Amino acid sequence: MKKSISLFAALMLAAGTAFAFHCPVDMKKIDEALAKNPKLTEAQMTEVKKLRADGEAFHKAGKHQESVDTLAKAMKILGI
Q: Is 48 exposed, middle or buried, given 0-12, 13-18 or 19+ CB atoms closer than 10 A?
């Protein structure tokens, strides 16, 4: 039983770490797409920039799932 609990805890820690490393990759993809001046409406551009900033804030706060979800919304608008 103790082995199962230890294994579960280790897997949860690994999953959290994986999300932590995923956030910067997504932010870089968004930054690269924005640098290419994508054809977006002003409202879409504002939304992408807000989502990008919010995603970074979540990442820095250790809320990696929220960061990944927020950055995914920005990438969807950008088509990446």
A: buried
The CATH number of the domain where 12 resides is what? 1.20.1270
pLDDT in tens, 15-64: 444 555 688 999 999 999 999 999 999 999 999 999 999 999 999 999 99
Q: Please state, in angstroms and rounded to a whole number, the distance separating the CA atoms of residues 47 and 66.
A: 16
Amino acid in the structure at residue 46: T
pLDDT at 78 over 60: yes
- The token duo for 32 is 């690269």
The boundaries of the domain holding residue 50 are 2-78
How many domains would you assign to the chain?
A: 1
User: Is the Cα dihedral 66, 10, 26, 62 positive or negative?
Assistant: positive
